[in-house]
Design goal:
The chain is an alpha+beta fold. The chain has four domains: 56 residues, no CATH class; 100 residues, Nucleic acid-binding proteins (OB fold (Dihydrolipoamide Acetyltransferase, E2P)), CATH 2.40.50; 109 residues, OB fold (Dihydrolipoamide Acetyltransferase, E2P); 154 residues, Nucleic acid-binding proteins (OB fold (Dihydrolipoamide Acetyltransferase, E2P), Beta Barrel), CATH 2.40.50. Helix content is 25%, strand content 34%.
Length: 472
């Protein structure tokens, strides 16, 4: 049921009168209430009169307040949800969230329109909420770390790449909550790189160490940008790009490999299934810091810097993962395709035509490929491998693969010749997971690194042979 604020105010005044009569307070009941009201309004800044009344009741008078909130103006609201559970499936349905203010960003659009973006964090995830014009100015001074209760709704994303927009709307509210009334929430802390790769937040503050720094590069428009890799206290790595030219130049001149830095207000970005960080234009900064937790010395892992350790049972579309796996089956498919001979074009060629380049000159290049299933001992997943990894696994180069397959003329017979080289062995693998929409919607992992665990496979082979001998 909703709070009866008339009854609550009456109880507060009765408490004040009792305190005055017993000499613990001075003045009239109205004067004391007005003083407390102004004091809370000054300290908390953004508060409705009813919210301040609840603070007075709980903190000054010890009165417990029922905090469940009824729908406003007939709007239908759901029960309170966690940020991690928010999705477009809740579109246009009211939801309530209690969270801490993780960061506050203010600015103006090109048309001088004020905006304030407040990022909320409830310990399960984070979500930004944007205010415009008068509301933007009203909420610009809210303090980081305070707990707020938000009644709003999910809508389609305005920006490409966003999962959804969270809005307050005319039936909602955004209100600071007394800590004593709110559920327990963890303090705001920096996400780890592993959490960034999993949750892909839009606003990131990260204390990290530079482990790789490239020369300044240029975009197609001729603007310079900086690219570098960093690691965190857990040794996880991620690639970073700064496209704001002044900030890119400043970074390149100021910082070097080994420096501990704070990436302030960066954003996670996904490109070709790789998660990276990039600047939020003129709102981002890079600062040299002394970290509170020691940052280990780690070696840059190339593409592997983007991967996180995961069991195959937990992977999802878009993940980049590291795991130990065994090939359980190779599909009987053609082990190469005719690739366009043009530089940096990996498209297939059919009857002399490339889907990207059109009619091509010269002979197509055979590019090896393999597919099948792989297991980590618990879960099976489809895999695909391209290029030189296939050459390493089969022990022959691309031209030899083409020659042998063309001579045999049958995929099944070709694969059987090489199955023992690959199947039943354990490898350290890295790859990106995607949804195979063309085939039953299953998950498929494109492996970009496959290293055989030679010693382990030798021991396994030895044990297997001993078992066979004992059974003979």
């Amino acid at each position: 049921m909703a709070i009866n604020y008339d009854e609550l105010k009456k109880n507060i005044h009765e408490f004040i009168k009792t305190e005055i009569s017993e000499g613990r307070l001075e003045g009239t009941s109205d004067d004391v209430y007005a003083e407390w009201h102004e004091d809370f309004k000054t300290k908390l800044r953004i508060m409705s009169d009813n919210a301040i009344m609840r603070f007075i009741a709980t903190q000054k008078c010890g009165i417990k307040v029922h905090t469940s909130i009824e729908p406003v103006d007939g709007a239908e609201f759901r029960k309170e949800v966690k940020i991690k559970d928010m999705s477009l499936a809740m579109k246009k349905k009211g939801i309530e969230v209690t969270a801490r203010v993780a960061r506050v960003d203010t600015g103006k659009t090109k048309k001088e329109k004020d905006f304030t973006t407040i990022t909320l964090d409830d310990g399960t995830g984070s979500v930004p909420i944007k205010f415009w014009n008068e509301e933007a100015l009203k909420y610009a001074s809210i303090q980081k770390g305070v707990i707020v209760h938000v009644r709003g709704y999910i809508d389609d994303p305005f920006m490409d790449g966003d999962q959804f927009d969270f809005k307050v709307g005319k039936f909602g509210h955004f209100e600071v909550v007394d800590d004593s009334e709110a559920p327990e929430l963890p303090d705001i802390k920096e996400p780890t790189i592993a959490e960034i790769k999993t949750n892909r937040p839009k606003h990131v503050d990260l204390t990290c160490k530079i482990i790789k720094k490239d020369e300044l590069k240029e975009t197609k428009n001729g603007k310079k940008y900086a690219s570098f890799a960093v690691s965190d206290a857990e040794g996880e790595q991620i690639f970073v790009k700064i496209f704001d030219e002044p900030l890119a130049n400043k970074f390149f001149k100021t910082f070097n490999v080994g420096d501990a830095i704070l990436l302030d207000n960066f954003s996670s970005n996904v490109w070709k299934n790789l998660v990276s960080l990039q600047n939020n234009w003129d709102k981002s900064s890079v600062k040299q810091v002394t970290p509170q937790v020691a940052l280990p010395v780690v070696e840059y892992k190339g593409k592997g810097a983007n991967a996180i350790e995961k069991d195959l049972v937990d992977v999802k579309d878009g993940d980049n993962v590291r795991f130990v796996g065994m090939f359980t089956r190779l599909y009987a498919t053609k082990p190469y395709y005719d690739m366009c001979p043009n530089d940096k074009c990996y498209k297939g060629v059919t009857d002399g035509f490339c889907a990207k380049c059109g009619e091509v000159e010269g002979d197509p290049i055979p590019r090896p490929r393999l597919g099948g299933t792989i297991t980590d001992g618990e879960t099976n997943l489809k895999f695909s491998i391209m290029g030189d990894i296939v050459e390493t696994l089969l022990g022959i180069n691309a031209n030899q693969i083409k020659e042998q397959f063309d001579a045999i003329g049958e995929a099944k017979a070709f694969i059987e010749n090489f199955a023992d080289r690959v199947q039943g062995k354990w490898y350290r693998c890295e790859g990106s997971v995607k949804l195979d929409k063309a085939y039953r919607g299953d998950l498929d992992i494109m492996l970009n690194k496959v290293d055989e665990i030679v010693e382990f496979n030798a021991q396994t082979k030895k044990i297997t042979e001993e078992i066979k001998e004992s059974l003979a």
